[in-house]
Write a structure and sequence with these properties.
disordered C terminus; mainly alpha; 67% helix; DNA-binding; globular; Arc Repressor Mutant, subunit A; TF_FadR/GntR_C; Four Helix Bundle (Hemerythrin (Met), subunit A); 245 residues
Length: 245
């Protein structure tokens, strides 16, 4: 839907990604560079991928997105270029632009990044407000599970991991994590044919959060490492089985 101020950031990740685009002046003051509209379109589409609103293989139409987001088709085209460089969308000649369907070989690379940024952020801990955001994501997941809403449960799980990285207080890491979460949701779509997929992680999220809340940061980090190891093995098995089918 068109608006006079399109694409106001709708999440912590897109807002932080926007805040990161700046430079310091000689006097040491921060001069914030206003992101281009194309960058804001890319942020919005990245968020929609992370939230599960765009499925792998979905065709993305320039004219439709331009109308929905209140921008020009050229702006959408520029955003596609950025997302294609991140392998979140692919352009097929004479067919158009589609949401990527990531391959099994991409999984280890993504989990390597997750271990580097999530575990280090968790081991360093955060402010009471940061920890409360992690707890809020856990409770969001419990409510979604109680309601039998698997999509909402998946989104809550994304929020949990995003909140962990946000504890580091780094807009750059939040920006990286925004891309990682988008990629993860593309992987998870194939795995969630099992309706209980995300519920398997609720107990892990709770245990990690409890350790974080009690100040047992090394224990929380160790629990997360084990969690990520199991998650990678699970996804690799699902995607490997699909490739063999």
């Amino acid at each position: 839907m068109a608006s006079s101020d399109p694409l106001v950031p709708t999440s912590r990740f897109s807002a932080n990604h926007t805040a990161d685009r700046g430079a310091r002046t000689a006097a040491g003051r921060l001069r914030v560079a206003v992101p281009s509209v194309a960058e804001r379109v890319a942020d919005e589409l990245r968020l929609q991928l992370a939230e599960g609103a765009l499925l792998p293989g979905t065709r993305l139409t320039e004219s439709t997105l331009a109308e929905d987001l209140g921008v020009s088709r050229n702006t959408v085209r520029e955003a596609f270029v950025e997302l294609a460089s991140e392998r979140l969308v692919v352009r097929h000649p004479n067919r158009g632009v589609f949401v990527a369907s990531l391959e099994a070989g991409d999984i280890h690379d993504v989990y390597t990044v997750r271990r580097a940024i999530e575990v280090s952020a968790l081991r360093a801990g955060g402010s009471p407000e940061d920890v409360a955001a992690v707890r809020a994501a856990v409770e969001e997941g419990k409510r979604a599970a109680a309601a039998g809403d698997d999509e909402a449960l998946g989104t809550a799980n994304q929020h949990f991991h995003g909140a962990i990285v946000a504890m580091a207080g780094s807009p750059r890491l939040n920006s990286i994590m925004g891309q990682v979460l988008a990629e993860m949701r593309l992987f998870f779509h194939k795995a969630t044919v099992d309706a209980q997929f995300y519920q398997h992680y609720l107990k892990d999220n709770e245990a990690i959060c409890l350790a974080l809340e009690s100040g047992e940061l090394d224990r929380a980090a160790d629990l997360l490492v084990a969690y990520l190891d199991r998650s990678e093995d699970n996804l690799s098995e699902v995607h490997g089985d699909a490739a063999d089918a």
